[in-house]
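Input sequence (336 aa), recorded before submission:
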Amino acid sequence: MSNSVRHHQKPAGGGAPEPISVEVFVQPGFSEFELSSILTVLNYANRISNTVAFGWNVVSDVPGFVTAACGTLARAEPAIFDHALADILIVVGGENCDPKGWLGRVRAMQRHRRPIAVLSDAATAYIKAAKAFDLPVTTHWRDVTLLNEEGSYSALNTSYLETANGVMTCAGVGFTPELTLHLVAKHLSRNEIAELASLLQIETIRDTAAEQPKGTSFLTNMFNPLVEHAIRVMEDNLAEPLSTTEISQRINVSIRHLERLFQTVLDTSPARYYKQLRVKKSHILITSTKMPLIDIALACGFGSTGTLSSAYKSQYGLSPNRIRTGGVFRDRSDTG
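Predicted structure, token format:
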């Protein structure tokens, strides 16, 4: 996973310019989806430009073979503080993003005014480490909820990409190909960008300032429009759950019609689906924060820790306390 080349200045004696170097920083548990998206875009960019326009190195603070979240192995070179900086730095998200391993690298790139992007979980870790309380920042929408539960980030939002102090924080995951396109765009012609997007089968390059789809209700053409509307109402009211009657009134259908739609489309009732959404939000808070269980219960629309524990155990097979002490769980949410 290495292509050690550089590209931006012509050699003194003429000839082809040197390739732009891209450094991709990974740590154990990294997202192989994000890494492969980055490298695929760079590889296709080289194809359409008919030159080695871009080169890349995968680096880590734990060099050697680094295991991804799903078991993929990436061979990473060592990253030594401010030594041999690339033209572009991308920090890939993942399960164990420790900013101590790459924050020095980010700072060095900032001093040299070179582009830096931190993706998804790495963006969340960066926001915390940099104490970006009043800076325009973003991350995956799920972690925006967690950050707002843990602190006060006045300019934190759910756009796809934000830039502050030379660091791009990004939603990552499915937006990663477009983020990579954004980083390499100034080195390509408009026609090459269009051709690259076509090869990648990206029909529309999303505006970086656009809102991320926050929940299943934002997946257009996935469900019946009325079901989408009902789910969005549920997702917007997890802390203070509405009754099925109130939901049906908000989307202007009868209770019976709403229940029939959910049974046909999702093979469950509105009330049961709503409860699953609330339990899934509690799972995120239980496994990703140190919030007291009573606060999590209230944030997810449960009146007590006992009520939360009962609903959680029904869906995940173990109690919240067991999950927090390292118990292995099995998700029962697909049992209908």
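Checked by second reader. The longest strand covers residues 54-60.
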